From TrEMBL:
Transcription as UniProt keyword: no
Protein name (Swiss-Prot/TrEMBL): Sugar phosphate phosphatase
Catalytic activity: L-glutamyl-[protein] + S-adenosyl-L-methionine = [protein]-L-glutamate 5-O-methyl ester + S-adenosyl-L-homocysteine; beta-D-fructose 1-phosphate + H2O = D-fructose + phosphate; beta-D-fructose 6-phosphate = dihydroxyacetone + D-glyceraldehyde 3-phosphate
Gene Ontology CC annotation, any one: nucleus
Taxonomic source organism: Agrilus planipennis (Emerald ash borer)
Swiss-Prot/TrEMBL cofactor(s): Mn(2+); Ni(2+)
Pfam family, one: ARMT1-like_dom
Superkingdom in the source lineage: Eukaryota
Entry EC number(s): 2.1.1.-, 3.1.3.-
PANTHER family linked to this entry: DAMAGE-CONTROL PHOSPHATASE ARMT1 (PTHR12260)
Length: 435
């Protein structure tokens, strides 16, 4: 339907004037085509690592990916996934719940979050069903290239930070530096491979020097509240949870922020939550974290390798941990967590602050509805309050809440597609709400 998404309704590609529609119509087919191209291009490399059998299985995999692409383009119904993997029941049950008298939802008539997550889950299912490629991460080469292509900027950043983080010489008061790091971290979220449809951008220049210019692009800024939460002398927990988004450039800034928290006694432990499967192209998995630390540690630039060594130590002595949880790759928003994965909800409740990274986490936090942009954050969280939480997100789709009255209209007047490219950033905070 050539309509905008009605107020408070879930985003759905059914409404043509939505980013959900654009994603299903344009972005997903491009992403899938690129994926196939990458597999073909890297065939020899894959066979040399996974054995001869992988060559035959790659043909099957490519056929299956093409089938998904065809099904999306022809708006077929999503189908039950046949697998004994533990999360599949969640997918199938949720899918069944979306069925109407016309049958199962189709790609263009389905809750957007479900349709998009389902595609990434199906991709993983294809690999899980092979004998030789079960452990192959179909996005691995892109993620690795993304780190290599941002190393110039990382070198700049390491040099700028070395005094502050390594020699403990205060360039700025602790609070100011913390807020700088929050903002650098926010802009690191611009570098995600699903918004560029899998194309790796070369990142150059000193990220610190650009911070001031970007200030006016932050459309909601609760940095002060986040500082109050993190520096609260009455806090009983010294754990900070970071629900990660992208590997490579963004993950580098997650490490910088986490390091700063430890060095300034703002946290004694940081838990990094990764994805348990290849997800939205560039999302970080355990392997990406380990690979990235290794690359930084052995880098020829002395500043980069110093940070790499320090961060490696944090993992080795347990002050940083990598946490793998299934919930992050469910097709569900976070209001389901308390009921469906109470253990994870209680684990998050141990944290002084939970930092949610990126656009997809934002969609899941706020239930992916077309909220009135001035809807209070607390309301849009729909009961998800394990602890104090914040989001660092560059805006890559239409869902927003907690904004000042009239702001979206001003942005729309400048550019109707203001929310699609990650040009704008949001730093939002919500206190823990006792329930
Ligand atoms: O890496 P991030 O910031 O979660 O962004 C990825 C998201 O952005 C989008 O490109 C647009 O919302 C989605 O496909 C995906 O949810």
């Amino acid at each position: 339907m050539d309509l905008v998404t009605p107020r408070n309704v879930h985003y759905n590609a059914f409404y043509k004037r939505s980013f959900a529609y654009y994603t299903m119509k344009e972005r997903i087919p491009v992403i899938l085509t690129q994926l196939i191209d990458n597999l073909v291009r890297n065939k020899d490399k894959i066979i040399s690592e996974y054995g001869q059998g992988a060559g035959e299985e790659l043909k099957i995999v490519i056929g299956e990916i093409s089938k998904i692409k065809y099904e999306v383009q022809t708006n077929k119904p999503l189908q039950e996934i046949v697998s004994s993997a533990p999360d599949i029941k969640i997918y199938n049950d949720y899918l069944a719940k979306q069925a109407t008298d016309d049958g199962w939802p189709t790609y263009f008539n389905c809750v957007w979050l479900l349709a998009e997550c389902y595609i990434y889950r199906k991709l993983y299912d294809i690999f899980e069903k092979t004998n030789t490629l079960k452990d192959f991460d179909l996005f691995r080469y892109q993620k690795e290239l993304a780190l290599i292509d941002s190393i110039d900027s990382i070198i700049f950043m390491c040099k700028s930070l070395s005094d502050m983080l390594l020699n403990e010489k205060a360039l700025y008061p602790v609070k100011d530096m913390f807020i700088h790091l929050l903002k650098l971290n926010l802009w690191g979220n611009r570098q995600d491979l699903s918004i560029t449809n899998g194309v790796v951008n070369h990142v150059t220049g000193d990220p610190m020097s650009n911070l001031e210019n970007l200030e006016s692009y932050i459309i909601s800024d609760h940095s002060e509240d986040i500082w109050s939460a993190i520096s609260d002398p009455a806090a009983t927990s010294q754990i900070v949870d970071i629900v990660l988004d992208n590997a490579a450039y963004e993950l580098y800034f997650d490490f910088c922020l986490a390091d700063y928290l430890l060095k300034n006694n703002l946290a004694s432990k940081v838990r990094f939550y990764v994805k348990n499967m290849p997800w939205f192209i560039s999302d970080a998995m355990t392997r990406d974290v380990n690979w990235q630390i290794k690359q930084l540690r052995k880098h020829s630039n002395k500043y980069v390798s110093l940070f790499g060594q320090q961060w490696d130590k944090h993992f080795k002595d347990g002050s940083w941990t990598v946490e793998v949880e299934d919930f992050w790759t469910y097709p569900l928003d976070y209001s389901y967590m308390k009921c469906l994965d109470n253990k994870l909800y209680r684990k998050l409740a141990e944290a002084k602050l939970i930092i949610f990274k990126g656009d997809l986490n934002y969609r899941k936090l706020f239930g992916e509805r077309n909220w009135d942009p001035i809807t209070p954050i607390e309301k849009a969280l729909q009961g998800f309050h394990p602890s104090k939480l914040c989001t660092l997100r560059t805006v890559k789709c239409d869902i927003v809440c907690g904004l000042r009255d009239g702001l979206v209209e001003e942005l729309e007047a400048k550019n109707a597609q203001w929310s699609y490219k990650g040009d704008y950033g949001m730093i939002q905070f919500c206190e823990k709400v006792e329930q």
